[in-house]
Amino acid sequence: MVTGSLLSALEILFSWPTPGWMILGLLAGILIGAIPGLGPNLGLAIVLPLTIRLDGPDAIILLISIYSGAMYGGSIAAILINTPGTAAAAATTLDGYPMARQGRALDALTISATASAVGGLFAIVTLLLLTPYLTQIVLLFGSPEYFLIALFGIALITVVARGSMVKGLTAGAFGLLLSTIGFPVAAGQPRYTFDSYLLFDGLDFVAVLIGIFAIGEMIKLIGERGTIAKGGVDMSGSVLSGARDVVRAPITTIKSGYIGMLIGAIPGSGASISNFISYAEAVRSGGGEEEYGEGNYRGVIASEASNNGTVAGSLIPTFSFGIPGSGATAILLGGLVMHGLNPGPELFTTNVDITYSVFLALLVGNAVILAVGLLLVTRSAYITRVNTTYLVPLIIVFATLGALGLRGNWLDVITVLVFGIFGFFLMRYNYSIIAFVLGIILGPIAEENLVRSLQLSDGSLLIFVDEPISLVLTVMTILIVIAPLVRAIRSS
Amino acid sequence: MHSRRSYLRVAAAGSVASSAMFLTGCLGDDNGDDGADDEFPSENFNVTIPWGQGGGTDIFTRQIWQTIADQNDVGAQFENVTGAAGMRGITELYNSEGNGYNLAPMNSPSVSHFLIQEPGFTIDEFRHIGGYARTVWVLATDPDEGFEGLDDVSDAYDAGDISNIAGQQPGEPNHVLSELIRDELDVQWDSYVAYDGSGPIIEAIAGGEVPAGIVTDTAAADAQDQIDVVTALHSEGTPLFPDLSNYTDYGHEVDIDFMGGFLRSFMAPPDTPDDRVDELTVLLQEALESEEMQEWAEDTGNEVEFLGGEDYVEDVLVENQERIPEIIDIDDL
């Protein structure tokens, strides 16, 4: 039965004009992802009404291709100008941009394309294999498990906060604090909104990320002269050398793809979270010639493999229960419903051929991403040789316009500018940016699921250890937290 | 069972017909205009959608108003103004000009956000064009519990076998409904657990995290293999589950329909003139009953029907506005 469905899916995917929609979607997605502030949500929102005239499978394949392309496209600006095209590529800036500064932009871009394709590939093949069991797998995870995964992510602050642990924890705690602004799921009244609609839905963390990474870096560049690639540094690297770096780190690549898939499957999360968790895990496990944050190619691999893995993961709750894992999948879900494809068991029984065709479109799409990434996008590395006098104003304009495009909310423009200044000082005084980001993006998921878990258990904390999965997650979190202490004791 | 709906249909049709006759009369009046205003619609509709792109309301609204625009040789511009649980877009509509071209969708559950957020205006100030769809809330349970009806669920709560019930955020309709079924239908649950939408509630029920929850009939219909649907919380039941009993079948004589049915409608700014509202109601009814809309509804499963004009919609929304504060303490959420 599975073979028959797969053959039907292949027929759908390779019947014209479906391949055309797929390639168009991927190219549009890469372009949209590469422009800071646009991102997959805006791209999908624009295209969704236009799909009304398409057949259901064509429409969904077009939408999913835009989503997948944007996940990769976001890395281009992240590497070249330290401005993540999408929140999913924010962690790519941490090592990708330093590589560009060292004249290794070409390497970073090819690593990004290769890691995106390979990470996505493993996640999608796994998704295809698991398709008959997806619903049962989703049901293994409940509120306690979601809380523990978020807590594990927050605990990773102890790993990524290099230097002063107090500064790392302070940055993380401040991020958590900011995440409490708005309307929580657990309560019926908004918090800290000062009676303004603008704050009702809280701060948009994508705007926060654009501010910290893009504006913060631009403020820094204003004080320098010349180009992003530091003066006297020649453009080095090749298409092959970058791809070779990915081959040299197979575990990091595959592991990151799966981390992305797992995080993507958690309702309310998405690639904006998975790329940081995956990066933090790469930092924890070490490797690579350079320090993390100073141009370690494994940092780029971790972030990029995970965000494309997230695309596959986010389809699990979306298709099985109609629960979007992110803004992009919420629009994708709208596309499914608009075309009469209701999420739920039907997508895994009577319409399973369409489901498989979407998964296969992602699989083939990764090959297209690899080709486009290696052959075309690498040429954009020359942006790092453009004088910053021209680049800085352009990037500031893009960042602020992109912020306005997020929700049409002027608060997001203010957020970008305020957090740009904030990010500059974070960098200047060596506060951990990743710790801050982990706090602000994981806070809402942790809070919502903590409150719900305690409601379910009538306040008992045993709910976090009474099932095998939750027990393992609790132990992992404890180990992550005490590891630095153990290391400190042993070294002393 | 369907007599009320049939009555409403007839009443609405009658009301629309009389409005049309009234309009015809008005058009013949010499009111001093040069005649330019007689052509309605002659400009593009500006439709503010207070919820996100791709959601149910967005899909319905775009389809319906594009159809109306096409039928009248004008255009329709759609803008999603999201945020504050829909209140940003609703506020934008409130402040826009009431010329018959500015309008927005309204969902009856949003009435609770008028009460929670106190935006400085109330739902009865708007002009209501008409209702186009109704979603019914249903009580769903974990199949492992083996409940066969509302009485089984009620008995299990009484016996202490189960204690939690799932719904959305406090103040949302499933929260109000859960209080209503405890007070009026004697379903004595102990603890209300909030989830972020019908999808997560269904996942929690199917996974055994909670034994029962209140979800929309459309969401429940998509998950029939994973959950049991034990009763409809509207006295007319739901067409998606034609054999399903509703709460009145269990001998309850109270009326919780105002909250058990999720009414989807359209509205215009407060200062929209009567004739424009009536004309919009006629256009809406014509579009909903057109072959094109009915084909679309059949293809996509998004059922639409003209439920009634301004009086009908306002009655439902105002009843929500008045009764919600009696059921839940808004200040204590």
UniProtKB/TrEMBL annotation, chain A:
Domain annotation DUF112: ranges: 21-438
Transmembrane annotation, as ranges: 21-39, 59-81, 108-131, 137-161, 168-185, 197-215, 321-342, 354-376, 388-404, 410-426, 433-451, 471-489
Keyword Membrane attributed: yes
Xref: InterPro entries: DUF112_TM
Keyword annotations of the record: Membrane, Transmembrane, Transmembrane helix
Cited Pfam families: TctA
Top-level taxon of the source organism: Archaea
UniProt protein name: DUF112 domain-containing protein
Organism (species): Natrarchaeobaculum aegyptiacum
Taxonomic placement: Archaea, Methanobacteriati, Methanobacteriota, Stenosarchaea group, Halobacteria
